[in-house]
Design brief:
By secondary structure, the chain is mostly helical. It contains 17 helices and five strands. The protein folds into two domains: about 50 residues, no CATH class; about 450 residues, Alpha/alpha barrel (Glycosyltransferase). Helix 9 runs parallel beside helix 11, helix 13 packs across helix 15 and helix 15 runs parallel beside helix 17.
């Protein structure tokens, strides 16, 4: 074949292709070019966007190595919708976690160094006049009263009794007996009950984060962690479950959920931060800080509060749990921003009446449960004991007294008891005698079904059920030692040998 023929054929082919190309409309050519360019971009950015929202156990999540070590195994949520609630549940397998929690030993020297570094950082990020300051009464970790020797001393000195502490022991046993095999708890506690006869269950069955957090808090409040205590395996499994349920986006970790919304996140943040503060376990540092970061990111940028959804206009009830979560993070020497606390104070100012002695829900008001929430938040964000509004608010709570009887409001009792305990004096002593004796006497006695638990007909009981009531009651009975006092009376330093 001649070279001229080949050259002619090639030019013919190119010419025909050029003709086809020029015959195509320009808009179609532009569309094809843009589609090709878009497909190239997708190949670059899709892998990153897939990992933008993920479970903390994913390898390429921020700080994934630390977090993955903390999680024992992948968490498998329980499909509560498949349970037949109208029929008695079959007796489940034993819910006690028997396997040893796979945590590395705590390095005391490393923890001490880390504690100093985080403390220096926290001093730049949190108001000086909160629970961590010497002005507020005690320096050092605010959970220090939960140690065995200190706990017994504080129990005696602050109004607790052998009967109240025995009630705590039996109540914690009831909670331990209702843990699910995957480490979580459910407000419908029948799904985890070791013993028959479960009743007064909650309807918020699709809230494993909130239920697990509420179950863990009484263990932690009594000094039991994943490192020590009779129920350390149960606590470890519960913390593992919380961490594995956390969803990460950037440097924030969400424990928000459908039923519990930001309530669940606030409660879970408190649990993670308290566990970290009590143990300084490095594996808990990242999850606890991520939870704090999410609270800060979810704050209403205008009003300074929190409600059910991300950056929604706030309400006092949800704000209370977030402020307590931030406080728990700070007492563990985690980073909390000043502007977040300033925003919370701004919100409290917007719903207060009587110059700050009373509080409403979304607007200024005067509702006893919210008054207790607001006053406790004020104590933790800098109000001195001689503040006239605080004195007036405490006097109002003392006059009303604790909620007792079959329809006792444990939400109110939980917050108000903390306010009265922190304020102290004769008003606290009178409050405590009535509150403590009522709770001890109303516990289900040993030998009966649901022994060790509590159930009242007050607000939120239908949703939270017996687990909700038992958790808040235990935290109320642990008030003597759960947190060190904010306001230190004139006394010798050895009053609290920490």
């Amino acid at each position: 074949m001649s070279e001229d023929y080949v050259d002619h054929e090639v030019r013919g082919r190119l010419g025909s292709r050029f003709f086809l190309f020029t015959a195509v409309p320009s808009w179609l050519i532009s569309l094809v070019v843009h589609l090709v360019f878009f497909m190239i971009l997708l190949t670059i950015f899709i892998p990153e966007s897939k990992n933008e929202r993920q479970i903390l156990t994913v390898d390429d999540a921020p700080d994934a190595e630390e977090i993955e070590e903390f999680v024992m195994e992948e968490f498998e949520p329980v499909d509560m919708e498949k349970l037949e609630f109208d029929n008695p549940l079959e007796q489940p397998e034993e819910a006690v976690i028997s396997d040893e929690v796979n945590f590395s030993d705590f390095d005391e020297q490393m923890a001490a160094t880390q504690m100093v570094e985080l403390s220096d950082f926290a001093e730049e990020t949190m108001p000086f006049s909160d629970i961590m300051s010497t002005q507020a009464g005690n320096s050092g970790n605010a959970t220090s009263g939960r140690g065995q020797a200190t706990r017994l001393q504080m129990l005696r000195e602050n109004g607790g009794t052998g009967a109240s502490e025995e009630a705590v022991v039996f109540g914690i046993q009831w909670i331990a007996d209702h843990q699910l095999k995957n480490g979580t708890w459910s407000f419908d506690h029948r799904s985890g009950a070791k013993k028959p006869g479960s009743k007064d269950w909650g309807t918020f069955a699709n809230s494993p984060r909130g239920a697990t957090a509420m179950a863990l808090l009484p263990f932690l409040g009594s000094g039991i962690t994943h490192k020590e205590g009779k129920y350390k395996d149960q606590v470890g499994a519960g913390l593992n479950a919380l961490v594995s349920l956390m969803e990460v986006r950037g440097d924030t970790g969400s424990l928000h959920e459908k039923d519990g919304n930001m309530y669940s996140h606030g409660l879970a943040t408190i649990a993670l931060c308290e566990a970290y503060a009590m143990t300084q376990d490095k594996k808990l540092q990242a999850p606890a800080q991520y939870a704090i970061n999410y609270i800060q990111a979810a704050q209403d940028p205008i009003g300074g509060g929190w409600r059910y959804q991300f950056r929604q206009r706030g309400d006092t009830s949800v704000v209370g749990w977030q402020v307590m979560g931030l406080k728990s993070g700070h007492m563990g020497y985690l980073g909390v921003r000043k502007d977040t606390i300033a925003g919370a104070v701004k919100f409290l100012d917007s719903v207060q009446t009587k110059n700050g002695a009373a509080y409403g829900y979304e607007d200024p008001g005067d509702r006893a449960p919210l008054n207790a929430v607001g006053l406790l938040c004020r104590m933790y964000t800098g109000w001195r004991k001689d503040n006239p509004a605080l004195q007036q608010g405490v006097a109002a709570l003392a006059k009303q007294g604790p909620s007792v009887g079959g329809n006792a409001n444990m939400y109110y009792n939980y917050y108000a008891t903390q306010v009265m305990r922190q304020y102290g004096g004769p008003q606290w002593e009178e409050w405590n005698d009535k509150m403590r004796d009522f709770l001890v006497k109303s516990q289900v006695p040993q030998g009966q079904a649901e022994a060790g638990s509590w159930h009242f007909g007050g607000p939120h009981t239908e949703r939270g059920g017996r687990l909700y009531n038992t958790s808040l009651t235990l935290l109320t009975l642990e008030v003597y030692y759960r947190h060190l006092p904010i306001y230190k009376a004139a006394a010798a330093d050895e009053d609290f040998p920490l």
